[in-house]
TrEMBL record:
Organism: Pelagovum pacificum
Entry-linked InterPro entries: TPR-like_helical_dom_sf
SUPFAM superfamilies membership: TPR-like
Pfam families in the cross-refs: TPR_16 (PF13432)
This protein's name: Tetratricopeptide repeat protein
Amino acid sequence: MRHPHVLTLLIAGTIGLSACSKPDGEAEVNRALNDLNVIDESNLNDVMLQAADPNEAVAYFNRTLQEQPERVDLQRGLASSLTRAGRSTEAVPAWERVVASSAATDDDRVNLADALIRSNDWDRAETVLDGIPPTHETYRRYRLEAMVADSNEEWDKADSFYETAVGLTTTPAAVLNNWGYSKLSRGDYSGAERLFGDAITHDQTMFTAKNNLALARGAQRNYELPVIPMSQTERAQLLHTLALAAIKQNDVATGRSLLREAIDTHPQHFEAAVRSLRALEDNVQN
């Protein structure tokens, strides 16, 4: 963003030059000032989209749109901010307004499909994605295509879309985790385990993938913790996950042992594991 003293110098220079020029110098000054305002506003829009609290960004774009309702870039900013704020029901009509514009892009249509999925409107999301040309090959498009195929239980299509999405990004951890969960839901536990492991390789902080990996191993009656980076708290939580998987499969003694280990491992009081152990013991006694 421009520094205030830089703007001051630029404005002063423009005014100084205009004072020595033709009679329409005042119009040129106004035009130069308007150009500077557009540059500064564009910078502010970017800041609101990337750094601001999403609800503050929603308020900003709503306020600015009241003054300039025809601006598609502001409509796009509002729709993006609503999505970031988790306000999917409001984001859908906001993206629809953007898509209805002559300035709409295929990325806007992908964003509309994303908002529809977040609103659990899978059929409309599929229709929107089907209307995007196949030449628009982006990571986000194929990740959404994979999720829609999953929802339709079209497993071969889902696998193809997930594989394509992985190849279109340098940070594939999230889509690998989604793909692994898809495999998990189909009962392909070994395939899921491999994908969750790949996700963790790309992002060692992704606890969701670590927990899903424990679920995949537990579903195969493998109750050993995987060899992955984990904190002491994460270790306790993963032991708890394995314990619940064991109990679900009637391996009660193993589940009880894992719960006790989880409680002992956690650096603080592990209320969830304590409740699980208490419920297990009460059920056995009864």
